[in-house]
Structure formats: structure tokens, C-alpha cells
């Protein structure tokens, strides 16, 4: 578990070093599993995970991976969906490996930036105003971002139970809907079919691209002041990309392969200690955590899980059709929330639609 990787005091590891270390772990796991690699890797949106994030989206050219023995074995194929630069990586061209870039982490950033006060987030012509949700019972701590790291407060800000149906609610409803689209392919994926997950992820992906295009036209270089910051935009697009690529293979249910179990286990290891944990705390905390689990199992036996349902990957052809449907839905939705004379077809043909690809250096 990478959060427990010991380093020297005041030392730090670069994204490249961590990518190489992860490759060593993946190589050992592959060798121990009869040359079958793990199908998925979970991580959050931290800056030191950027290289892994890009590798698993196929955004790093193969020649730049020559110094990474495990990762240079990946061969990438495009799914040829409209305006979709991400590629599926397969070890030696045979075994797919996909990522999970932290849906809970992305959701926290997504909700925080809409209420931070440093910008006025707008979806089309509709501003997001959380003040209206206070009347509906939104917790004051969630409203003032008392704990930016709280998953609970993030969920409260995206919970439409607090929307009263007033005119001021429109913006938060749209914001929560977009958050729901990308989470339908991750945290709540078990409630949707694979085809629904794929279409929702594509729809979210294209809606976000359209918003960037719209705000760039209106605000120019200051577009981030009226929308999400570029890093959060990249995080949302990348999360959608990981989910879409994962649905092309049998990588298990997305809500079972997020970073949440890792964070929960790491939190249990750190629980008895305060401040920055050291190596002694890590070893002692791990043993205490295992003993707590053992005591819990001795009192309440863990139920034997049912066999996992057969989950076949979607075909490339089916995925392209779902992408086109998501693209159409996003263009129609954009025309509904924007004060503009452009029709959905005109929005789809607009040349500036391609400009957000500068985020990924393409």
C-alpha cells in the first residue's frame, strides 16, 4: 500500500520515482500471479500521481517510458470516440491495465471550487449559488467548507435534498447533476448498467468540454474565474476517461476499485497517533489494526460474499455509439442552459470545441 511507503525525514519522492516504484510492485504482483498483471490501480489526484495518471490514459508517448521497465511494455490503442484523446494500455499488447484517479478526491475538489468564494462558477448562463441551500437545511459547516478534506461535507454540498425548488437552486442542481454523472460511473456504478455508466461518463466529459469552450469565448484568458480551475477540469475529464477505458474490459465493478478502501485502511493505521507518522508508528499501527480486525471477526463472522456477477467489457463499436449519444445529449443540454442563438448542431461543429485539448498537451 503506497501511503505506507517509508521515506527519510524531510525527504520527498518525485512522480517519476513513484512511477518506477509502482512498476516494481506491479512486476512482482504479475510474476506472483502467473504472469497476469493486476487489472486496475487506484490512486488519488495528488501531484506525485500525475505520471501514473497520464500513463494509464495513454497520454505519455512510448519513447518517454523507456526508463520505466514495467510501463514501457504497455501498448496503447485508441477507441476513436469523438474528441477523446485517451487510449487503453495493454501489457505486451494482451492484458489491459486501467486506473482509478480518485472519484472521492475529484468530488471534493468539484464541490469546493463552486463555493470557495474565489470564483463564480457558471454552467452555461446559470450561476451556482449555494446560499439558497442553507434554507433547505444544508449544514453550516459544509457551507463554509469547515473541513475541505471531508467526504461527508462534500456529499452534503452535492445533495439535492437541500434544494428548495427556488429559482436560485438552478445552478446547484446543474452542478450536482454533473457530479452525479461522473459518480454514476464510479461511486454509484452498481446502480447502473455498463452501457448507462459509459453514456453518462461520455455525457459528463462533453458537458465539461463545452463549458470550457463557452467560458473561453466569453472571458478569454480569464475563463477560470467563471468556471472550475483548469486542474479540476483535467481531473474530471481524466476520471471520466479512466471509467470509460475500464468499461472496455473486465476490471471489476468501478465502485469496488476506488482509492477509498486504501484511505480507510491507512486511516485505521494512523488512528492511534498524532502528527506525522514515522516508521515505528507504521509498523505498530498496522499490527494494532490487524488485531482489531481479528477481534472483530471473532465476535462477528464475516459473511461469505456471493460470487461476482459476470461482467464483460463493452465492445469498441458499442462504446463509440454511446460516445456519440453522449455528445448529442451534451450539446442539447448546453443549448438549454445557455443564452445563445446557437443550435446543438452548431455547437457540435464549432471549431473552438477542440481548444480544451491544450490541457493534455495535444
Please characterize this protein's 3D structure.
- Helix 7 packs across helix 8 (194-219) and helix 8 (194-219) runs antiparallel to helix 9.
- It is built from 13 helices and 6 strands.
- The two termini are 33 Å apart.
- Strand 2 and strand 3 (87-91) form a beta hairpin.
- The strands form 2 sheets. The chain has a 4-stranded mixed β-sheet with strand order 1-4-3-2, sandwiched between helices. Strands 5-6 form a two-stranded antiparallel ribbon.
- The protein has helices at residues 15-32, 50-56, 103-113, 131-134, 140-143, 151-157, 170-183, 194-219, 230-246, 260-270, 279-299, 316-337, 344-349; strands at 40-42, 74-78, 87-91, 95-100, 122-123, 126-127.
- Helix content is 46%, strand content 6%.
- It is α+β, with helices and mostly antiparallel strands and 362 residues long.
- The mean pLDDT is 87.
- 35% of the residues are buried.
Amino acid at each position: 500500500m503506497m501511503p505506507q511507503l517509508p521515506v527519510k525525514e524531510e525527504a520527498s519522492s518525485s512522480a517519476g520515482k513513484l512511477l518506477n516504484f509502482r512498476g516494481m510492485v506491479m512486476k512482482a504482483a504479475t510474476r506472483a500471479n502467473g504472469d497476469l498483471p493486476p487489472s486496475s490501480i487506484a490512486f488519488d489526484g495528488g501531484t506525485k500521481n500525475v505520471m501514473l495518471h497520464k500513463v494509464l490514459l495513454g497520454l505519455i508517448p512510448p519513447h518517454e517510458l523507456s526508463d520505466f521497465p514495467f510501463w514501457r511494455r504497455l501498448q496503447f490503442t485508441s477507441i476513436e470516440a469523438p474528441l477523446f484523446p485517451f487510449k487503453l494500455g495493454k501489457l505486451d499488447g494482451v492484458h489491459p491495465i486501467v486506473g482509478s484517479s480518485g472519484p472521492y478526491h475529484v468530488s471534493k475538489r468539484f464541490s469546493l471550487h463552486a463555493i470557495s468564494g474565489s470564483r463564480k462558477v457558471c454552467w452555461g448562463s446559470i450561476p451556482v449559488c449555494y446560499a439558497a441551500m442553507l434554507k433547505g437545511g444544508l449544514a453550516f459547516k459544509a457551507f463554509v467548507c469547515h473541513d475541505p478534506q471531508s467526504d461527508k461535507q462534500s456529499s452534503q454540498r452535492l445533495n439535492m435534498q437541500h434544494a428548495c425548488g427556488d429559482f436560485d437552486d438552478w445552478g446547484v442542481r446543474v452542478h450536482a447533476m454533473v457530479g452525479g454523472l461522473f459518480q454514476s460511473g464510479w461511486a454509484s456504478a452498481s446502480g447502473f448498467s455498463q452501457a448507462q455508466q459509459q453514456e453518462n461518463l461520455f455525457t459528463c466529459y462533453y458537458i465539461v468540454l463545452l463549458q470550457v469552450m463557452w467560458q473561453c469565448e466569453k472571458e478569454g484568458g480569464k475563463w477560470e474565474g467563471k468556471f472550475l480551475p483548469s486542474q479540476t477540469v483535467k481531473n474530471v475529464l481524466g476520471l471520466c476517461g479512466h471509467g470509460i477505458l475500464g468499461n472496455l474490459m473486465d476490471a471489476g465493478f468501478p465502485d469496488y476499485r476506488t482509492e477509498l478502501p486504501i484511505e480507510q485502511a491507512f486511516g485505521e493505521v494512523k488512528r492511534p497517533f498524532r502528527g506525522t507518522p514515522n516508521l515505528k508508528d507504521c509498523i505498530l499501527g498496522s499490527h494494532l489494526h490487524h488485531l482489531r480486525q481479528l477481534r472483530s471477526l471473532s465476535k462477528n463472522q464475516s459473511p461469505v460474499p456471493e460470487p461476482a456477477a459476470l461482467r464483460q467489457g463493452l465492445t469498441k463499436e458499442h462504446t463509440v455509439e454511446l460516445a456519440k449519444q453522449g455528445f448529442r445529449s451534451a450539446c442539447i443540454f448546453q443549448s438549454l442552459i445557455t443564452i445563445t442563438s446557437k443550435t446543438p448542431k452548431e455547437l457540435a461543429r464549432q471549431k473552438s470545441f477542440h481548444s480544451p485539448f491544450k490541457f493534455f498537451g495535444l
